[in-house]
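Quick one - inputs below.
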Amino acid sequence: MNDFRPPADHARCCGPRREFLADVGLGFTGLALGAMLHRDGVAAEGTGDPHGKVRVVPDGRPHHVPRAKNVIWIFLSGGYSQMETWDPKPALNKYADKTYEQTPLPNPLKDPLFELRSRDVIGGARPHAKIFPMQVGFRRYGELGIGMTDWWPELATCVDDMAFVRSMYTTDNDHNAEFQMHHGRHKLDPPEPVLGSWIHYGLGTGNENLPSFVFLGKYKDTRVRWNFDANYLGPAHSGVELSLDPGDPLPFGRRRPGVLAAEQRNQFDFINRLNRLTAVEYPEDADVRARIKSYELAYRMQKSVPEAVNLAGETAATQKLYGIDNKTTSVYGRRLLAARRLAERGVRYSLVYLSDYGEWDSHNKLQELHARSCARVDRPIAGLLKDLKQRGLWDDTLVVCCTEFGRTPGLEVRDTKQKFTGRDHHPHGFTVWLAGAGVKRGVIHGRTDELGFHAIEHPHYVTDLHATVLHLLGLDSRRLEIPGRKRLDVDYGRPITEIMT
Amino acid sequence: MTAVSGSSLSAAGPVDYMKRIKPILAAHCFACHGALKQENGLRLDTGVLARKGGESGPAVVPRQPDKSLLLERLQTDDISLRMPPEGKGQALKPEQIRLLVEWIRQGAVSPEGETPQADPKSHWAFRAPARQPVPVAEESHNRIDDYIAAGLQKRGVNRLPEAPGETLLRRVYLDLVGVPPTMVEQAEFAADTAPGAYERVVDRLLENPRYGERWGRHWMDVWRYSDWYGRRKVPDSLNSYGQIWRWRDWIIHSVNDDKSYDRMIVEMLAADEVAGDDDENLVATGFIIRNFYRWNYNTWLKDNIEHTGKAFLGLTFNCCHCHDHKYDPLTQVDYFRMRATFEPIEVRHDRVAGDADPGVYPKYKYGKPYKPLTVGMVRICDEKLDAKTFVYSKGESRNIIPGRPPIAPGGPGFLGGADWNVKPVQLPPRAWYPGLKDFVRQESRQAVQKELAEKRGVLAFARRLVSEAQAELISANGSEPARRKLEQIRLTLVVDETNLQAAVLKVAAVEARIHADDVRYLGHPGDADQVARQAVRIEHEAKVATARVEVARARRAVVAAEAALAGKATDAKLKAAVTAAKKMLVTTGAAVTTSETSLKKAITSGATNYTLFSHQYARTSTGRRTALARWIASRDNPLTARVAVNHIWGRHFGRAIVASTENFGNNGDRPTHPGLLDWLAVEFMERGWRMKPIHRLIVTSRTYRTTSRTGSTDHPNLARDPDNISLWRFSPSRMEAEVVRDSMLKISGSLDGRIGGREIPQPQGLTTPRRSVYFDHHGEGRMSFLDLFDAADPCDCYRRTRSVRPQQALALVNSELALRQGRLLAGRLVVTPMDDPAFVDAAFRQVLARRPSSAERAASFEFLARQADVFSGAKPSELAVDPKQVTVAPATDPAQRARESLVQALFSHTDFLTIR
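Output:
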């Protein structure tokens, strides 16, 4: 502990300029410095471009007129069955228990698309020859008579506001497809930044007091974080995980026990004052100015973030709309209501993880598991759509609901003796839907074959969905890249203009 | 391309070839029709060459679009003829075609003297580095300054003066050891007024073990260090591997020992072949293990190729997975040669002294999770010695091209990688049979010796009991209970005697096996078969003896059961016990007979298969990776030394000479100081590839010692070279994540200096005062405190980013780390009573390594007073803390607590986070 013996004091010579500026001109409340801070913005990064090349850093302005201001991206993990949700297939009942060969339909396993649209991470064929009938009934709803299964009583009332894309496909037949859904790359290829990170990179923040890319959800498997990882764009563009506990809404976002409010306020003021003195000393150092601003923001975030996710101020009627009054739906309703509050406050992209990791993965007992999971989210999602409409947020907010892949038309087969009653992973065709800003109401786009196996009409790889979201936000995916990182054609995707207003 | 897109053709204006035509051809055609390749003899990289054409005639005929083959091939409906060929490039847009037509119609004009694309093989990085002459500059400390001075002159900027001593001291501490100087170290430096004081500090820091941790972490970025991950929650280790931390420790020790870089490369790629029985260095192959992916070996091989290329050579092999490189003379065949080099690999577990045997590496079974290894070491070996490598297309291993012969191991042909002399390596016995290692024998001996000693002790005790029981029997006049007790104890004595016999034989068996191993594998004199037979025999005898122990136990159990039954003959339970005990006696007796039969059989058959001390692996290795390593770590390789010194330079200055540190190819960044890079590369090799001399050269250069402060935004240099490319000043930068955390711990006197060991769980990061490098760091998540400060991406970190974000402020103000260390430091600073001015001075010096200005002092006094007011005015309930939640409680004295608050605030000071 010898290191802590203070040495004899030496008088230090300090230029009079520094004190003068700090105390009189550019001090604590100095206007000139304040203006400088404003101009630089907090997003300014210290070392600039690592490549030393001229870099077209987005200036936060969209590439074209945006149709949407913000996005609520609902993700249901594990792979929901397209046929038991939003792409019902009566042919499954007709050909139940037959093999693909025994039907008059072409065998989907022999279609060249089968090889083309799947790439195994681990080798091994997964047989599922016998057709498994639909595990739930369905009806046609709305003006167009859009088919939806009986597990969506609430959402069925919203069908005239939704745009279904029934022809999605991906290429991984295992759960890494979840991360692929968010960054666009197969497990065996290096990941790209996720959609939310590109949005943050392209548009910056919509509310300085809140993070712009937010993750809402709970998980035990830490790989879920890959869904909001900016990868090579750098952690500044990664999603910020918010908790719905107003006492502890974001990492380090709260005074620690034993620290008084006044103590901390004084501390922030003091830090600010010292940093401003340094800013006078180093006028050429943009980092100092960025840091001063970021501390001010940080102080405000301690208030603004808990306020944004605090649902106590919402009326009982609103809470009921989201199913918060009900034990089964409460946790999911709370996440979506928080997402709406964040959208209102300018958060650009909320990734709402509306299930546990892998919850929808129904290899067995599909009927039981899907019925359970649908019941958890039906009311909250419908509530969100209705709430957006009633609050006039419909034209600002885009809602996307998706999963990582579909499920096989055939019955799951395992080499065990146990009889399975579910469906296996299925990258070849699945359904997502969109609603809200810039999206047509009550339409179906794309089609799978009669069994729901292959996406055959208007097939869309997952990055098309990304391009669609970016397009609605006013961004052109092809203009989002940084030097030294090669993006492939497939990474950019193509906006699904057919479903846009 | 912006010149073209969206433009409509104005009929009138002439089409500017350089602005509008050449960019189209460059983007779509040059890769196959330029300097890199000349498909069909055609080059399109100048107008003249386009007009000249290739084997099919002129590609462009001025004023005659209809006769220009170029247009025909771009527009044909025949997919087999249309350019660019499918999968090799994007089709041209109609407006681009229209531009080409118009250009040709106007006469296909191109400037005279247009230079063709340079031969990609003549690219600067592919030529051997050489020292280029440069005049000695004024105020030059070493040659570095001369090269820098030349650049300054070219840009017309003046070098700033040297940084003040205190700034320089902090800079070099943070740079070399990753923690700042304490007050005492600052005072020592200030007191050393003799010439060379700074150089002496540098020498000391380079010998400080903290240096290996700091620079080891840099190299861990480049070599992509990652602890195991995959499905950690399960847990299922898919990527990297448990126990890989031994490689991390190897890196830190190697850097501290200043092991030569060329040797480090050889060990990381092929220690198993060049030092197969060298336990200390085998773990270097963690470089290859880190890329391991249990689910897919293609991915493992792919990552090895990509990251070997990027880390050591600055070559982007990954581009050649599917096609020949678009910019560099690397071919798809080169890629598969690299793959063949790695093709035979497999993971191997080895035992280490003091750890349990981890067992043999388990092959993957579909669907089965694999817990991470927690004992022993993990290293690479060649298993598939005759593995063949076949070229596949489209980056998809299913598409093996039929009929194409396998590819031989090698590297890039244009750098001599096609003619490696790959020779199989005969491994030393201890490499393929680790059971021969001294520690294994010693631990085996210790185990049986320990058992023997125990059995001896037990026997002695039993003998004492017998004599006591005898005495008891006499004094009890031969009573029945005393007689029975003696009988029981005697039977126990028999058990213990048999046990001793077995233990003696076990010791003998271990010795016999060791002796047999010596003769068989280590060339000791003796008849190999005879000693093996001897070992077999003693092992069997030990087994017989062990079986006899069970008989003795069973016999004792029978007597005990019968004794219990005596007098209670009708008790069914006790009767059953007697029957069971008798049955056991028969069973154990049979086991003795069986083992005796085995013994006899072994003797008569002359069996030599005694139990080995470990698994035996292949006795040879393919030597492929050795060839790769030697080719990389060679003075003849133009890239290796350049890439290494470029990394070193970049981590000292915040910007590398070649900014794209992992890409030195034609599409990489140009060096800002090519002469300097070459000089450093040559110097590095001539100084035996040792890093410390290079560090010393760099940090003692005048360039490094320059101040970072301009003091004004009007400085003329800022206009001429705003990005400080020419290094007219030292670029200030934010501390890396680890430095932030480690510095707080060091400053407050809490840093635990232990080096190495198993990775520490991330959640302990805020409370366990070990250096950040020792915490769990993997592809599934980083410690959140470090992550906020841009910790290394364990999958890709050839460079670090440095952001400024509000969450960083929150992490500093609200983390347990800052609060706790602030309290500790405030307490440690006031070991002797001091007034506020002295305290403020000490706190600034300890945290910021400088004294406060008078304005800062004034602000601090005001702050101390204000905080003390807050604390004295607060209710006791507000000040009370739960000791379970807050392990280091704030001071109860308001003045002291204000001081704690001041220290905590200084951790948030921009001057703390900034290296100036």
